[in-house]
Fold Proline--tRNA ligase.
Amino acid sequence: MRLSALYMPTLKEAPADAEVISHKLLVRAGMIRKLTSGIYTYLPLGRRSLDKIAQIVREEMNAAGGQEIFMPMVQPGDLWKETGRWDVYGPELLRVKDRHGRDYCLGPTHEEVVTDLVRGEVRSYRQLPLNLYQIQTKFRDEIRPRFGLMRGREFVMKDAYSFDKDAHGADASYAAMYDAYTRAFKRLGLRFRAVQADSGAIGGSYSHEFMVLATTGEDTIVTCTQCEYAANLEKAEVCYANEPLDRGECPELVEVETPGMHTVAEVAKFLELPESKILKTLLYEADGKPVAVLLRGDRELNEIKLKNLAGVTNLELAGPEQVKKWTGAAVGFAGPVGLEVERIYADEEIMRDTDWAAGANKDDMHVLHVDIPRDVKLTASADLRTVTMDDPCPACGGGIEMPRGIEVGHVFKLGTKYSEAMNATFLDEAGKEQLMIMGCYGIGVSRILAAAIEQNNDEFGIVFPPSIAPYEVALLTLGAKDDAVVAKSEELYELLTDKGVDVLLDDRGERPGVKFKDADLVGFPIQVVVGGKALARGVVEAKDRRTGEKAELPVDAFEEAFD
Ligand code: ATP
Ligand code: MG
Ligand code: MG
Ligand code: MG
């Protein structure tokens, strides 16, 4: 490619809304442009890097037995209603209606669509295992789109889905994806760490996130200084949450509305928190019946008494036996729900709330059915306990570190959550109908472009890992009016192109300073400078962008240097 013909509008200044270096540099290097909040166009250079990332991911997925497909971005709401996620997903799901008034959504993920694809079609254990993946544009109406490609609303994801006939097979599928991710992220030139993640509300039992280590990461990781323990903060908090909770220590209380959700799992998913962190939720509409649910505390409770206040009818407690089981648990809060709750603790302290409250021990959550008028505003709260550097490693008791990370990949055992909801079954060896066991595996293809830059930059610009640089070599012609220089540049350009090297020829009539600056800004790994004086001595100069090291290459030996 010739730079004179390339649409590469570089900028001296970063846009005002760019907070992190990758966002600034991607815009300045002419790789992306913002269309609107969280939605970007990839210019030719950005597109090339994105394609290279996607290609590495694709090769590793194929090598691990994945088969590439391409699913629709527009998904029927009916499928989401089948799994219950239509109500659970919250405002991140962009919902639209067609001309007939039917519900659709823009795909934020594809469990429903892929499960619909295989159910009915896959009938025998002989057709399993199956791993289907795609590289595709996702839409999530993120509450806070920011940091350019890092947290967009429209972004490119590789999502894979595995289907197995038994738990053993599902383990193998998970392991194969874990290994493929490790290989892919290495090839992408990233410094990363695989960490345990909470499998939370999605219904799985096992999960890892792949984190690119960077101070600008939105995630906090907990790693041990002595053993192999590494987890994301939420997962680590689950370990620490087993300790009694001191209310005085809770720094943050989140209060959000959770319309239409009925279980702790749904609220936890909505709040992006582990279920164990949901201290109190007030919910409505389960099985058509409004309900209030739950939660977790640390004091022994003898009795809960509920008094019906304005408009609340049909109080139905889970039963006195269960109340007895709610030992080691107690909570209660405000909110004009119209119940008076009296909690009588073992030490005979009595607490009264005009609200409702109930307790449950952590492993045994109870639902309290209450008819609540529709016009009552309900809220859910979650309690966050911060983990600090003073905490011991949950695995070995050693010291911990808490670096920041960018989640670039996520592998997840789904179990039978979707196959059960959508009736994806097959006949096993004995001719018996069984549910498929699933896994899902995501890679943030466009987020990787940003994450790679967060890790690889200097004062002059991007320092691309060679595997994802838009061009591997920039050939700078210094002196567009010097015939010998132009002729030699053209000759070397042809030669490299013929060798299959990704080369960009800067044949513009710009001053040398402009060419050097642009080449450094975009971060081509190797810059070859063809200048009049050096050429007269039979050499060109090559610069390694990362180290800044320069070397003179004899023009005669130029070809071999790129073998
Ligand atoms: P996050 O915690 O950052 O919101 P997530 O856990 O919601 O991400 P997943 O559902 O696990 O994301 O999706 C798989 C991958 O897609 C993530 O690991 C991440 O790399 C990427 N991804 C998710 N949301 C975004 C986004 N808004 N912009 C860019 N990439 C994203
Ligand atoms: Mg998210
Ligand atoms: Mg996440
Ligand atoms: Mg994730």
